[in-house]
Amino acid sequence: MAAVASSTGGPTSAEEQEALKALTFQRLHPKTYLERFLAENVRPDGREFDEWRDISVNVGSISTADGSALVKLGSTTVVCGVKAEIAEPELDKPKEGFLVPNLDLPAICSPKFKPGPPTDEAQVLSDRLNDVLISSGVVSLASLCIEPGKAAWVLYVDATCINYDGNAFDATLLAMVAALKNTRLPRARFDEDRQRTICSRTIREPLTLGRLPTSFSFGIFDGTHVLADPTSFEEPLLDTSVSVVIDDEGGLVSVMQLGLGVVGVGEGEGEDVLTACIDAARECWAKTRNVVYGPRES
Fold it and tell me: Across the strands, what pairs with 217?
């Protein structure tokens, strides 16, 4: 009976106790916890400094949307749907349509987000995503015009993070571009006599796409360590983050830096770090990301 009692009701194993101590230390002293890992040239999740998490892209899973995509970057999961409506073009841009991206970070995706109106982080990320999509020309706004000054397509590109484990910007940009690539719109024409737009019920056509941007984000910890694809644990501890956006030909679209703006301790080291991030982004694009969207439509 004593043996049975010790096996079922005894103290936890030594391994469980050590795991509990490590978890407690991680929550109470996160910066020291990360520093100890980095001192051994490894990150808490076992990756090297320049190692990226696995990525997967699935498209067309939302039947009620005009285009959709589901992206997983490690444990970070983002779903995106494109919904098209018809509106009048702006007066100063009568031959262009509209592209309206938005990212939602609901409370269900992470304990760090609370119920209520959109967080500041979601609004900042939405603005950054809009800047990249417009500057890269991923969709020709002129191609969204049905009749100059009369009718144009409005594409609402709505993304929702359903599980947050860091680097939502990279994952969301992938989801938005993949969803736009999957989008099919009904063939439309403007009827002058009835002053209304007529849409085909049978013919649906893909969007006219330009460059397909992909983002590669890095975190700078303690001014010296450059961490690729930071997790939700690492992000709050970073001094600076750098996002390098590469198009589908390997060309540089933009470089965005957020944070203190102080990288390295010597003259010129900040520029060297940015150059290293751009080189690392291009290398990752060449090895893996250049195929994530699949082949272009003919």
Answer: 243
Q: 248 — phi, psi (to 5°)? A: -75, 0
pLDDT in tens, 156-212: 999 999 999 999 999 999 999 999 999 999 999 988 888 888 888 899 999 999 999
Q: 206 with 142: CB under 8 angstroms?
A: no
Asked if 145 and 95 touch (Cβ cutoff 8 Å), the reply is yes
**Is the distance from CB of 174 to CB of 243 less than 8 angstroms?**
no
Contacts of 96 (CB under 8 A, 6+ apart): 89, 90, 141, 142, 144, 145, 152
Dihedral class, residue 127 (left if φ above 0, else alpha if ψ from -120 to 50, else beta): alpha
Structure tokens at 172: 């969301």
CATH 3.30.230.70 holds for 55-211:
yes
Least Cα distance to 159 among 188, 130, 184, 202 occurs for: 130
**Beta strands 98-104; 151-163: pairing state:** parallel
Q: Which value, in Å, is the radius of gyration of the alpha carbons in the chain?
A: 23
